[in-house]
Design a protein that fits this description.
The protein is built from two helices and six strands. By secondary structure, the protein is an alpha+beta fold. The chain has one domain. The strands form three sheets. It has a two-stranded antiparallel sheet with strand order 1-2.
Length: 93
């Protein structure tokens, strides 16, 4: 599938889902209620959906382009990886 075909398929599925009140977040791919999303509609079509959880942890910018809408997201906080020291196990002596 080309990126254009994939986008069109997402839009068609999103339209059907929106009618049922459930959408797929474009960032985490989670299925959430319509009330728990930020949506972008253009010419009567749903073009982007973002769940509240992802919206709370990212700065999201929508920009119109000649081909449609460009969406950019950046995490607000760095991801913290916590490494714990593995306990040393002594073998039989």
């Amino acid at each position: 599938m080309t990126p254009e075909q994939l986008q069109r398929a997402w839009v068609l599925q999103a339209q059907a889902d929106a009618e049922r009140g459930v959408l797929e977040c474009r960032m985490c791919r989670g299925r959430v209620l319509l009330e728990e999303t930020t949506t972008l509609w253009r010419n009567g079509l749903l073009v982007f959906a973002l769940c509240d959880r992802c919206a709370g942890s990212h700065d999201v910018v929508f920009s119109p382009t000649p081909a449609g809408v460009e969406v950019r997201a950046r995490r607000r906080r760095p991801v913290e990886l916590v490494a714990k020291e593995v306990p040393h196990v002594h073998g039989p002596r």
